[in-house]
Design a protein that fits this description.
With 455 residues, the protein is α/β, with parallel strands linked by helices. Helix content is 31%, strand content 19%. It has nine helices and 15 strands. The protein has a five-stranded parallel sheet. A five-stranded antiparallel sheet has the order 6-15-14-11-12, covered by helices on one side. It is elongated.
Amino acid sequence: MPASVPRQRALPAAEGGQAPAAPPNGGSTQDSAEALATAPRAAAPSERTTDTSGAAPDRAEATAPTNLTLLLIEDDPVGSPIVPDLLDQAGKPIRVRTARNLTEAERLLTDDVHCILLDLALPAPGRAGGGDDELAVLKHVLELAPRHAVLALTGADDTERGAEAVRVGAQDYLVRDELDGRLLSRAIRYAVERKRSESAERRLAEGRLRAQENRRLERGLLPTPLLEGSSLRFAARYRPGRSRALLGGDFYDVVRTPDGTVHAMIGDVCGHGPDEAALGVELRIAWRALTLAGLCGDQLLGTLQQVLEHERADDEIFATLCTVDIAPDGRRAGLCLAGHPSPLLVRPGLPARLLPYDNNGPALGLLPGARWPRMQVELGAEWSLMLYTDGLIEGRVSGSGERLGQDGMVDMVRRQLSEGLHGEELLRAAVHEVRNLNGGELTDDVAVLLLDRAP
C-alpha cells in the first residue's frame, strides 16, 4: 500500500497546487476527482488536497485504490494548469503529490512514488538560477531518485533543453502548453514502463558482469593443478555458501616441483565477497610461485603472512591454510597447519582418520613472527588424502542444531567409503550430504580436494 504523507489541515485544491484549468462544463476538476472517489468534497483524496509542504488533510483518505503516484516538482503549482484528473490504463485515478522545491520533493519521495514530473526551470539547490548548467536540477533529481521514472517539463520555446534532458537520463520530456489529461496519463505510464525496462536491462548487464567476474575469480581460486609426471590422481569440489553468485574466500592449488615432490594447499580467507576472493587469489598465486621457487614449511607460510599483511584491507582479516608436501616416492608427507582443519587420511583396511594436528600453528595474519611447525606423516603405499575448508564441518545437523564437526565428517566419509564411493563421486556425495544435513544451503563456502595414490 502507498505510504500516506503527514497530516495537517485540509487545504483547497488551488492552495495545494492541484487546481487545473476549468473543464468545458464549467465545473472544477476537483469536483470530478471527488466524484471518482465517491466521497464528499471535504474528504477529497489526500494527494489531490495536499499543500506544497506535502501535508495531508485531517480526514482519512477516501480514494479508490490507485496503481500509480506522480510527484510534481514545480515552483508555482498553485497556478499550474498541467495536472488535470489523471487516470491510469485501468481507469483508476493517478495520485498526485506536489512540491515547490527539491527540499520538499525529497521528503515526499517515498517508495510508492512511481514517476516524477519535474519543471526544468526550477533552480538547482544552492543556485539561484541553476548556474551555468541548465540541467543541474534534473541531474540532482536523478541522483536523488535513481529508481524512479522522470518526466521533464519545458516550455514551447525550450524543447531543445527537453531533448537534452532525455539524453541525460529523463524518460521523456513534455511541453507545458500542449498537455492534457490523456497525454499526461499516457506519458506517465510509458515513462514508468520504460524505467522498468531500463532497470531490467541494467540488472541483466550487472548479472553478466558478475558472471564474468565469477569466472575470473574461479580461474584464480580454483586453478588447474600442475601434476604432469605424477602418478597421483586429483579431484576437487567447490560450492559457494547460500548460493552466492560470487565465489568466497576459499582457495586451493596443487603443483609438482622438478624434484618430483607434489605440493598441495587449501585455504580460507575470513569473510565472504569479492575482496576476500581477490585476496584468496593473491595468496594462492603467491603460494604457487613460492613453492615453485623451492620454499616450503615455515619459511613459505611466513612469506605468505607478509603477503596477506600487505594486501588485506583491514588488520582483522586473516586466512587459514593447510599445506602438504608429498615425497617423490609417495609414501610420506610433510604437513603444516595454520589454524586450518587437519586433512583426512584413508588407507585400505584401516578406518579413515584425521592427520595429527597437535602442532597446529595460528592462522595467517593473527600473530606477527609466528611459526608453523612441519610434521612428518607416513602415508603408506596406497592412500587417499582429503583436504577441505571448514564449511564442510560447520554446517548444522537438522533436528539437533549441533554442528557436524570433524568427528561427524569422519563418520560420514567412512560410511560413504564403505558404500564404494571414491574420487569425485566421494566428494560430490560428501558435499551433498552435508548440505542435506544442514537442511539447506550452507552458510560458509565449501572447498574439498582429494589426492589418491594407487600401488
